[in-house]
From TrEMBL:
<feature type="compositionally biased region" description="Polar residues">
    <location>
        <begin position="301"/>
        <end position="321"/>
    </location>
</feature>
<feature type="region of interest" description="Disordered">
    <location>
        <begin position="394"/>
        <end position="432"/>
    </location>
</feature>
<comment type="similarity">
    <text>Belongs to the DHHC palmitoyltransferase family. PFA4 subfamily.</text>
</comment>
<dbReference type="InterPro" id="IPR001594">
    <property type="entry name" value="Palmitoyltrfase_DHHC"/>
</dbReference>
<feature type="transmembrane region" description="Helical">
    <location>
        <begin position="177"/>
        <end position="202"/>
    </location>
</feature>
<keyword id="KW-0812">Transmembrane</keyword>
<feature type="domain" description="Palmitoyltransferase DHHC">
    <location>
        <begin position="92"/>
        <end position="216"/>
    </location>
</feature>
<protein>
    <recommendedName>
        <fullName>Palmitoyltransferase PFA4</fullName>
        <ecNumber>2.3.1.225</ecNumber>
    </recommendedName>
</protein>
<comment type="function">
    <text>Mediates the reversible addition of palmitate to target proteins, thereby regulating their membrane association and biological function.</text>
</comment>
<dbReference type="Pfam" id="PF01529">
    <property type="entry name" value="DHHC"/>
</dbReference>
<dbReference type="InterPro" id="IPR033682">
    <property type="entry name" value="PFA4"/>
</dbReference>
<feature type="region of interest" description="Disordered">
    <location>
        <begin position="271"/>
        <end position="346"/>
    </location>
</feature>
<feature type="active site" description="S-palmitoyl cysteine intermediate">
    <location>
        <position position="124"/>
    </location>
</feature>
<keyword id="KW-0564">Palmitate</keyword>
<feature type="compositionally biased region" description="Acidic residues">
    <location>
        <begin position="410"/>
        <end position="422"/>
    </location>
</feature>
<feature type="transmembrane region" description="Helical">
    <location>
        <begin position="138"/>
        <end position="156"/>
    </location>
</feature>
<feature type="transmembrane region" description="Helical">
    <location>
        <begin position="41"/>
        <end position="60"/>
    </location>
</feature>
Length: 432
């Protein structure tokens, strides 16, 4: 994403927050309380503005805080096994080829930021920044305050409408418009951010990031298919310590934007006797790794723009229905009526002979009847009713002794001993 697009996203988000937060107070709540400053008005609006203030503050911190970069020349401490993620296949440390540098545990390369991000969660367009080790706390608090402020905002509006229906008072037109606009913007935000927050509450409770959530899903699939044994997620330290690792050790400051503890280069592992605990994410043992790209290989376009020889497409890439119709058209019994221009004379049907059928291949030589011999015996494919009937009739008529056949054979004797009369032309005979 370009710099300008990113800034537009941030500008749009800020404008949306400010519209929902302040237009509701100026055009809905202020006229409702008679445009006079009162204790009731303050008790309603002070908590709301506190929530909005915390929301904007955390949003600002999330946008401007560096999510965490790998210090130049950083190398994993191979001696210290604690918090050191090992790549299972090579048993070596993680390495980012794009950055040409070692990758600390839980760090991932972000294509938009063009660098490795410590404890990368995801790249968020709404904050035009990656969400990583140092700003995940602000991001999480921002989501929390969006939920609180939206709920408070909706409660004010629902109460406003309820009071109006009780007293049958008339709204001012501007008040009416802003109630509708505020509901129309706040409810979608509340639902979308609410769902997103639930997912992040779940992730935080298990001390995993969005990327690690995907990795967990992949591992669960591998376990279900019996490819690997069950592996415990190594960073899950228990609910309390998981929250502390992101929001700080003291619950009193959980809602306050505090700096995330730790350096982001090393993470506490869960105690356990599982020797594979540090091999996260586990690899699929049946997965064949892609070969290293050949740096000398040059990609070149084929000389002809056509897929198949000159000016044609690959016949095997024809849609199956068209091919099936074609088979029927060329088959023994045309699907077309005789007056159709594409109609062809039917060919003779040769009955199926298993001895002559080729192994493991559809035999198309016997027009229309497709026979295949596989590991499970003979399979006969799509033979039409007329062909069955024809085959049946032929079987019956060939039964020995059932019918006497007249074979107009020319005997060899008559050929040898030609009637002398036969060589004389008929005209000559008539004349004689
Ligand atoms: Zn990188
Ligand atoms: Zn990023």
């Amino acid at each position: 994403m370009g710099r300008l697009t990113g800034r537009l996203f941030v500008g749009f988000t800020t404008a949306l927050i400010c519209f929902i937060a302040y237009s509701s107070q100026i055009f809905v709540v202020w006229p409702w309380y008679g445009r006079v400053l009162s204790i009731e008005l303050l008790t309603l609006l002070v908590p709301f503005n506190a929530l909005v203030g915390m929301l904007l503050w955390n949003y600002y911190l999330c946008v401007v805080t560096d999510p965490g970069r790998v210090p130049p020349g950083w190398q994993p401490d191979v001696q210290d096994n604690d918090g050191y993620e090992v790549k299972k296949l090579t048993r070596g440390p993680r390495y980012c080829r794009t950055c040409d540098a070692f990758k600390p545990p839980r760090a991932h390369h972000c294509r938009q930021c063009k660098r490795c991000i410590l404890r990368m969660d995801h790249h968020c367009p709404w904050v035009n920044n990656c969400v990583g080790h140092f700003n995940y706390g602000y991001f999480f608090r921002f989501l929390f305050y969006v939920n609180c402020a939206c709920s408070y905002h909706l409660a004010i509006h629902v109460r406003r409408i309820y009071v109006a229906t009780q007293t049958w008072e008339n709204f001012e037109s501007s008040e009416m418009i802003f109630i509708i606009l505020n509901m129309a913007t706040c409810i979608p935000v509340w639902l979308a951010v609410g769902g997103f927050s639930l997912y992040h509450f779940y992730l935080l409770s298990g001390n995993s990031t969005t990327i690690e959530g995907w990795e967990k899903d992949k591992v669960a699939t591998l376990v279900r298919r019996g490819k690997i044994h069950e592996i415990k997620f190594p960073y899950n330290l228990g609910l309390w310590r998981n929250i502390c690792s992101v929001l700080g050790d003291s619950p009193l400051w959980w809602c306050w934007p505090t700096v995330t503890p730790g350096t982001g280069l090393k993470y506490q592992l869960a105690e356990g006797d599982d020797p594979d605990a540090e091999n996260w994410p586990p690899e699929d043992p049946t997965h064949v790794p892609m070969p290293e790209p050949d740096p000398n290989h040059k990609f070149s376009l084929p000389s002809s723009p056509w897929t198949y020889q000159n000016g044609s497409v690959n016949p095997y890439l024809q849609p199956s229905n068209a091919r099936r119709r074609q088979t029927t058209r060329n088959g023994p019994y045309s699907a077309l009526p005789p007056y159709h221009p594409d109609y062809r004379e039917p060919e003779a049907v040769v009955p199926y002979d298993p001895a002559s059928s080729s192994e493991d291949e559809y035999d198309n030589s016997r027009s229309g009847i497709r026979v295949r011999r596989g590991s499970e015996g003979y399979e006969i494919k799509s033979i039409n009713r007329e062909a069955i009937m024809q085959g049946f009739i032929e079987d019956r008529t060939r039964e020995p002794g059932r019918y006497n056949y007249y074979d107009p054979e020319v005997s060899s004797e008559s050929e040898a001993e030609e009637d002398p009369d036969d060589s004389v032309p008929l005209a000559a005979k008539l004349q004689s």
